[in-house]
Design goal:
The complex is a heterodimer. Chain A is an alpha+beta fold. Helix content of chain A is 31%, strand content 22%. Chain A has a domain at 91-163. Chain B is an alpha/beta fold. Chain B is 37% helix and 12% strand. Chain B has eight helices and eight strands. In chain B, the strands form two sheets. Chain B has a five-stranded parallel β-sheet, sandwiched between helices. A three-stranded antiparallel β-sheet of chain B has the order 1-3-2. The chains are: A alpha+beta, B alpha/beta. Chain A: InterPro entries: Ribosomal_bS1m (IPR019375).
């Protein structure tokens, strides 16, 4: 468990480092590890990704994120879900996949979908339309008295902000 | 039914005598609820049939199931997403990569290996004409599982599981019922988050199981557990597609081998893969 905690904190640390790397140019940027990295696992992972980036940039001017050589650790680190951080009050774009009278079932790329009430006057929201959401929780769970595990509702909770206007692309897009 | 018994005995003699079977069964490989009324016939070693049955056993991945999926496919289908930390089952901890902000992440490297083993096993069972049963009690995916089973010519059970379905089949369905040779669970939990009764019953009846185990499931009784997400439609569609492709590939391969080795087209249509 301690090892897992270290990796997790290393992940969070690396999120900040990776954003800096991504913004800088993709040329061979084998700079030294900035600041103390916690745990050998974190350092090793970081060096592995750096080595891959140097190799891919030497091979061709293409982003390596679409290549099949990426490890699970690298894929996870770059995934929008991890980069988003805590789910509380994160604005995401979702897609309505089912409408039952006034309930919209919206999938935003997480494990579960969320169910929102259709706001008054928004009859244009059909299955397939994209909407903006403010997430509250990725999975609604609670531990009740006398239970050994949490009870899960198999749903996420989000507040519907409105339909996504075409052209406004500033928020996080989940892989959907 | 007696003809079926006889022909299937012929068919699986090679299986029984060639190597230690993963499926231990007293009745020559098939799971019959009643003891056979006739003595098993003398082993008529049909060389061609033995060759057909033994050839896939020589290579570790004869059906090349590893080509059917990649890590990126699993990742895009959100197979790595687990439940929250509070829902975690203690026995799933070896399969987890870690926990991020209270959400469990399943280790996809391990999932790749387990999925490959499971698909390989499914392919071998389908090659030998085994009956495969798809089970899932998730109402959201019931129709998908049923259409998958229909598309690969196998069976599905997505409704209420009666208590004696496997263990009391003799009485519930009549004597001499053939039980499935493999049960594939697309979700190992039932609707009240308890383990599906079929897992325990299959273990009692010596039927191997393949099961997709999420981070809140118990993987201990499942023969080939596949740690992965079982809640997202994308993930379940991926599993259904993979199993369907594997089974169809294995069955086509079997037909190809039979044609290659000069076996005539099946005349007696009573068994699945009729032999000479």
């Amino acid at each position: 468990m301690a090892g897992l905690c270290r990796v997790v904190s290393g992940l969070q640390y690396r999120v900040r480092l990776s954003s800096r790397f991504l913004r800088s140019s993709f040329s061979s940027d084998s700079g030294p590890a900035e600041g103390p990295v916690s745990g050998f696992a974190a350092a090793f992972d970081q060096q592995e990704v750096l080595r891959r980036e140097t190799q891919s940039s030497a091979a061709g001017p293409k982003a390596s994120s679409s290549g099949p050589e990426l490890s699970f650790a690298a894929l996870l680190r770059r995934s929008p879900l991890i980069q988003m951080g805590p789910a509380k009050d994160a604005v995401v774009v979702g897609r309505v996949f089912r409408v039952v009278r006034d309930d919209l079932y919206i999938d935003f790329g997480g494990k579960f979908h969320c169910v929102c009430q259709r706001p008054a006057g928004a009859d244009g929201l059909q299955p397939g339309s994209r909407v903006r959401l403010r997430l509250q929780d990725m999975e609604l769970t609670a531990r009740f008295l006398g239970a050994s595990t949490d009870t899960t509702l198999l749903e996420a909770q989000a507040v519907l902000l409105g339909p996504k206007e075409a052209g406004s692309g500033g928020e996080h897009h989940q892989n959907d | 039914i007696d003809v079926l018994t006889f022909v299937s005995y012929l068919g699986l003699l090679g299986f029984r005598y060639s190597r230690a079977a993963t499926v231990a069964s007293p009745c020559g490989g098939h799971h019959y609820v009643t003891a056979p009324s006739v003595k098993p016939p003398q082993p008529q070693a049909d060389d061609v049939t033995e060759k057909i049955l033994n050839q896939p056993l020589e290579k570790p991945d004869f059906f090349r199931v590893a080509e059917l999926f990649s890590l990126k496919d699993l990742f895009d289908a959100r197979v790595h997403l687990g439940h929250k930390k509070g829902c975690r089952h203690r026995l799933m901890e070896p399969y987890l990569y870690g926990c991020r902000l209270d959400h469990d992440i399943i280790d996809l490297d391990q999932t790749m290996e387990h999925l490959q083993l499971a698909l390989n096993f499914t392919a071998h069972i389908a090659y030998r004409g085994g009956i495969i049963l798809f089970v899932s009690r998730r109402r959201q995916f019931g129709h998908l599982v049923e259409t998958t089973a229909k598309d690969c010519g196998e069976y599905a059970h997505t409704r209420y599981w009666q208590g004696g379905l496997l263990t009391n089949a003799n009485i519930q369905y009549g004597p001499g019922v053939r039980l499935p040779d493999l049960i594939i669970f697309l979700s190992t939990l039932n609707n009240v988050f308890q383990q599906h009764v079929g897992i325990r019953d299959a273990a009692k009846m010596n039927i191997p199981t393949v099961g997709v185990v999420d981070s809140n499931c118990n993987p201990s009784l499942v023969t080939y557990p596949v740690p992965g997400n079982d809640d997202t439609p994308a993930a379940v569609e991926l599993y259904c597609r993979l199993f369907k492709m594997t089974i169809n590939r294995a069955k086509d391969r079997r037909k190809q081998m039979e044609l290659l080795h000069g076996l005539s087209a099946p005349t007696s249509q009573t068994s699945r893969y009729a032999l000479k």
